[in-house]
Amino acid sequence: YVTLLARAERWEDARIAERLRRELVTRLLALGRAGDALLAIETAWRRGQRYAPRDGRELVRLVLLATDVGHAATADRLLLEVGEQFADDPEVCSLRARRGR
């Protein structure tokens, strides 16, 4: 995933890179590598790229992980940028309400 993502990030059409990044983050979470998953998201943002999780459940997991490791800005940004996409998910709604987003 990392090698493919590095190549796709150079392409004009960003959709493939966004998809690979989403798959990479999901895979890292499945492997128990939460820190690497958050790093992949934060790196994308630093490069001016977007990130959207696979679903509301993954969004909640990432926000809670970011909060637990002291990355409150990452948690807030995730909720601000993609929280609305999962407005039908009760866990996302609850999390957004608790964090004031």
List keywords for this structure.
mainly alpha; 101 residues; single chain
What is the rounded Rg? 13 Å
Distance between the termini: 32 Å
> Low-confidence stretches at least 5 residues in length (pLDDT < 50)?
none
Order of helices and strands: HHHHHH
Number of helices: 6
Mean pLDDT: 92
Largest sheet: none
Helix content: 55-70%
β-strand amount: under 5%
Structural class: mainly alpha
What best-fitting shape do the alpha-carbon axes yield?
globular
Query: Count the strands?
Result: 0
In short:
By secondary structure, the chain is mainly alpha-helical. The chain has helices at residues 2-8, 15-30, 34-46, 56-68, 72-82, 90-99.
3D structure, described in words:
The chain is globular and about 40 Å long. The longest helix is centred in the first third of the chain and has 16 residues, at 15-30. α1 (2-8) packs antiparallel against α2, α2 (15-30) packs antiparallel against α3 and α4 packs antiparallel against α5. By secondary structure, it is mainly α. It has helices at residues 2-8, 15-30, 34-46, 56-68, 72-82, 90-99. The protein is built from 6 helices and no strands.
